[in-house]
Design a protein that fits this description.
Helices cover 69% and strands 0% of the residues. The protein has 286 residues and is mostly helical. It is globular. The relative contact order is 0.14.
Length: 286
């Protein structure tokens, strides 16, 4: 074996070891949570209680969790689905239109708008938190779905991502459509959207996961049990929001945490093929 071949083999082996290490570390918490959700843990939970395999299979932990919430968990799941799905759909719609316009349409101020978006993206989200919170009170949206949905309906990150993707596509396709008499709406729906499936899958997955896992903002703008998301409700039954820790069955809590994770896992498995393709957007350009 030549020296070059040995070096290549060693590089691949090192890369494989690093990837395996990070894969195991990423999945370790999910695995331990799954094992704990199937184990009788009781009202105390320490590091020593973690096991690689369930000591005694406790599938009733899931029923116990829903019993603890008195049925409110189903309502929290519905709320989480609404505030994750509705803003994501609108976000994709606005981002694709804005990204297409910035990348393929020539109009005054296009570069200024684009660089303004880049500048605003550099501002930490917490800087705008207090003004946004005050707006919810002035609009009388506190403890309503409006406060949970409307502020998330448009995201600058999605606009930037779609604009960068559209910049890699040949403009000849759009010009051919215009020559054939197609309107901008037809070009957008019949040419742009079909070619944008990989980036749309990435955007949908990222926005949905962000909305589904969001805790801080729903915690700020909701008070009633009816408006809680699953993450806020899960923390409330532990008692963290009350400044204390309630005595609950931690096996049931872990079961609830696993229920909260399943929609995201299922969605990723469904969109995995498109997601992997979307991650390579712009990697090769020529």
């Amino acid at each position: 074996m030549s020296t070059t071949a040995k070096t290549t083999l060693q590089s691949r082996l090192v890369g494989l070891i690093v990837l395996l290490f990070y894969t195991v570390m990423s999945l370790l918490s999910l695995y331990l949570m799954t094992v704990s959700s199937l184990t009788h843990l009781g009202t105390s939970f320490e590091l020593a209680d973690l096991d690689w395999f369930p000591r005694d299979w406790a599938f009733e932990n899931f029923a116990t969790f829903f019993a603890i919430t008195r049925g409110a968990a189903w309502m929290w799941l519905r709320n989480s689905l609404i505030i994750a799905l509705v803003p994501t759909v609108f976000n994709l719609l606005f981002a694709t239109m804005a990204g297409y316009a910035l990348a393929k349409l020539d109009f005054p101020g296009r570069r200024f708008i684009f660089w303004s978006i880049i500048g605003v993206m550099a501002i930490p989200a917490f800087v705008t938190l207090i003004p946004l919170y005050q707006m919810m009170f002035k609009f009388a949206w506190f403890d309503t779905f409006y406060a949970l949905i409307v502020p998330k309906m448009a995201g600058l990150g999605s606009i930037f991502l779609f604009k960068q993707y559209m910049s890699t596509l040949p403009s000849d396709l759009m010009e051919a459509g215009r020559i054939d008499g197609a309107s901008e709406g037809m070009i957008f729906t019949r040419i742009v959207w079909p070619m944008a499936q990989p980036v749309l899958a990435v955007m949908f997955l990222l926005e949905f996961v962000a909305g589904w896992g969001d805790y801080f903002w729903p915690y700020l703008v909701t008070n009633s049990t009816e408006q809680m998301t699953f993450q806020v409700g899960l923390m409330s039954i532990i008692g963290v929001d009350q400044g204390t820790v309630l005595l609950q069955d931690y096996g049931a809590i872990m079961a609830g945490s696993l229920v909260a994770s399943l929609p995201v896992i299922i969605l990723f498995l469904l969109l995995q093929r498109h997601f992997v393709r979307g991650l390579t957007i712009g990697a090769v350009k020529g």
